[in-house]
Each structure stands twice: as structure tokens, then as C-alpha cells.
Amino acid sequence: MTIAVASPDRAPGSPGAAAAGGGTGRGLEGKPWGGPRSSDEIGLAIPRPPGEVTRGFHMVLVIDVGNTNTMLGLLDEQRIVQTWRISTVARTTDELGGLLLQLLANRGAGPSDVDGAICCCVVPSLVYTVEKACLRYLSVECLRVGRGIKTGMPIHTDNPREVGADRIVNAVAAIERGGGPVIVVDFGTATTFDCVDARHAYVGGVIAPGLRISEEALFDRTAQLPRVELQRPPSVIGRNTVNAVQSGLFYGYAGLVDSVVDRIRGELGADARVVATGGYANLLATVSERIEEVDVYLTLRGLGVLHARNR
Known about the structure:
The chain is of the alpha/beta class. The chain has helices at 93-106, 127-138, 165-178, 211-220, 241-268, 281-285, 298-309; strands at residues 4-6, 59-65, 69-76, 79-87, 114-121, 142-144, 182-187, 190-196, 202-209, 273-278, 293-295. It folds into 2 domains: 4-144, ATPase, nucleotide binding domain (Nucleotidyltransferase, domain 5, 2-Layer Sandwich); 160-304, ATPase, nucleotide binding domain (Nucleotidyltransferase, domain 5), CATH 3.30.420. Helix 2 (127-138) links the parallel strand 5 and strand 6 (142-144). Helix 3 packs across helix 7. The radius of gyration is 20 Å and the shape is globular.
């Protein structure tokens, strides 16, 4: 199976644009995506000397606050020009604001280059800090994905208010990317399966323990099993304890994903696309028989779409 992999968007002629080739997917604007890169390797999409953001480019700061990590991105007309990953920890408004200024300064940008912000947050206690930091240090109001925001997507669940903000954002991005029906698998602290039908309505999903949580539980609740690096083992049959644990996590989790997708397709439709995102998406896509597309920045793209709809 050929898996379409999305990477940060690059404008034609930008540094590294030619080298980024290799993926077969296409972005929101219909432009080809390149191969996957880590957040530390991401270049800038707009042609300019590396490490600089040209003054006069007005961009949107998108913030995805997860339980473990927080992803931030700068978007210019839906094109990702920079991303950062920081730990999700309690910070004061001034601490977060100072960090935002430092991250921007490291790329030659400042508050005047940011003309909007939007966040989705699954840690309610941190919402106030994010909103105040954006207002105080960037002089922009931060939209928050929640009640009152225009998604353009009906939510057909028993209680729409309890659906996580990140799940709504992922669904919006998946619709924008290729329509429905579609299943979004997000490998985060928890692994979520979000389902959009052919009419582009969010109809629910599945929540399972995340891959890292499963590994930590195995280590914490057993006396002799070690912590292991989450990677593909050399064979399914482990010839030592470390490889045996890796095999159980890696292949067991891939089996979980494929089995759940098959059951969802039985209700949603056999033609439902499967898009994976999150920290372990690239790893699991190498063995899953159901994952068709990978975009580790799907949530950031979805935030950009929602910001444009609510300006």
C-alpha cells in the first residue's frame, strides 16, 4: 500500500523545496507534500534566508494544547511556515508569553508579524493562560475551539459539547483535505478514531489507551519487564525481553488500529478513507494495513481552517 505522507508546506523555490519530495499526498491547496520531517528539521515555507521571517508577512499562530505536548505553528494563508513542540506544563501568563516571544525571535519574527491566534485545548486549566499570553504579549485575541465557534460541520452525537476540541479540529481538517467519509486516527496520549460520514457530519468515534500509556502501564505493573524504546522490532517473535515487549506493543497496536477501522467501516462505509496523525502516526503506518494517509500536522491545519471561518 502507498501511504501519502504530509510534511510542512514549502513554497516553490524555497530552501529545501526540491529535497522535500517523496510523498504522494497533496495539501489543502492541491500542492504536493514532501516526505516526513521532525519538528526540529522543519524549514520555512516562504522563500527567505533560513531562520528568518520576512517582516510584513502577517501570520496566524495556531496552538494545539494536548495532555502531554503542545504543538504550535505559524500559518500563512493555510501554509505552515514553522512549528514548535513544547511540553504541556502549568506556566504563568508571563512565562508563556516570554516563551512565545523567544520562539518567534529565534525565527526573526515578532508580535507585529502575528495578526491572529487560535487554540484547541484539552486541559481546561490552561485555557486562560494561553488566551491572556496571546493578548498581553502578541496583542491578538486568541480564538478558542468550543461553544460558539463556526465549524461548518454538523456534530451528530448524543452530547456534542463533550467531544474534545482536538477531535473536532481533526475532523474539519480531514474534510477539507479530501471530504468524507473519513476516519481520523490520532496517536496522542490517548488514541482516538474520529468518524465523518459522506455528508460531512461528525458522527462519533472510538477512544483507546495511547501507545505510550500502554507501555508505561506494562512497566509500572510488572516487576521484571523493562521500559523499552517504542520502535519496530527486528522480527515479530522477540528473541529477548526488550524485543518481545516491543513486538507486543508495535504489532499489537497495529492490530488494534486495523481491527477498529474494519469495524468502523462496517458502520460508516467500506470506502471511508483513513488518515493518521499524532506522534506515532509515521511509526504505526509502516505496519498498519489500513492507514492510507499520514499528516502529523493535521490538527494545526484544521486550526488554520477554523480561524479563517471565524475571522
